[in-house]
Amino acid sequence: MRFYRVLLLSAVLSLSMSACITTNSPTTGGKGVSYGDSKAVETVSTDLGSTDIQMTAEKMTMSMLQTPLLQDIIRQRGLLMASPVANKTSEYFDTKLITDTILTQLQKNGVRYVIAGDEMQNQTDELIRQNQTGLYKKSTAAKVGNMQGAQYRIDGSVSSIVKRDASVKDVYYKINMRLIEIESGIVEWSDEKEIRKTLRK
Amino acid sequence: MKKMIALLALGAACAGVCQPIYAADGGSIASKVEELGKIDSLTVTDMRAARRDNLLRIQFTVTNSSPKNEQLYYRFRWLDADGFTVWDEEPWKPEIIYGKQDKVLNAIAPTFKAVDFKLELQSPHNSTTSERTGAGDNPPYR
Predict the structure, then answer these.
(1) Which domains are seen in chain B, by residue range?
(2) Over the stretch A64-101, which tens digit does the pLDDT of each residue have?
(3) Helix-strand-coil percent breakdown of chain B, rounded to 5?
(4) What confidence score (pLDDT) does residue B13 get?
(5) Which residues in chain A have Cβ-Cβ distances shorter than 8 Å to B51?
(6) A positions 140-159 inside 8 Å of B (CB)
(7) A92 part of a folded domain
(8) Helices (H), chain A
(9) How many domains does chain A contain in total?
(10) Contacts of A197 in chain B (CB under 8 A)
(11) Contact B141 A40 (CB under 8 A)
């Protein structure tokens, strides 16, 4: 009887020991760094964050997509561009994060857009390289003067109202976006996203 | 009864008012909602789906049976007719549902390719069973 008890105990022990063996994860580096969910709701501070940018871009894309004008632009292969979104808040953040995401999401639905602003420098540099350095065959070099202008541009602004007392900080953000016909200046579509963030100390 | 009305509404949306949406699993609310753990006081009591301007539109009502405010996190998964996802993972969206409130929430598919959807719901007060631990313990915020 005692023999069976010892046998059973050793079997359980060996089973539990084998269960403890784990494989190494395919990671390298220190234990302090880890990857998180990029789609998680970020509540680190009341500043404009990843969730605000993602929700705003998502709302604007959905709102723009359902307008008949944008569906016409897709059908007629019209061109869009994005002007810099004005940051009227006291915080610093790159407003291109919003327009870049909107343009990417629109393009997945068939919208074509042209580059503008600070991206133009790379484009003109490449055209100059192909046409003026003498390094390229003329028959294969991209011709100067064939770039296409957009018919519509996306514009917008981010504003905020900050209120605080001893125990609460409340920030109200309003992000406004517009689709403007460049030739006429007519605002063909506009929408806004409101966000309230509260910090209790 | 409320659930029955909601089901009928979803059916009507699919059949008559607009183009039908693809619902391989019958088109009931339960088949469209995925709760991460059991949400005790929040319930999806109504859900409508319609196709307008070539885009799938969803409207759903979340009812808070508790007198306290409840935090809800939700997002959609957009699917094609074969059940493949046709859009990137959406960000989780936070929403406060006041005590005893029926909150109506709307969404529009971000792509023309979406013909079906799943609604993911999470609440920090989710309860979990021993078979499915973890989901409710790790809310989608940081």
Answers:
(1) 2-125 (2.60.40.3230)
(2) 999 999 999 999 999 999 998 999 999 999 999 999 99
(3) 15, 40, 45
(4) 45
(5) none
(6) none
(7) yes
(8) 2-20, 50-65, 68-75, 96-107, 120-132
(9) 1
(10) none
(11) yes
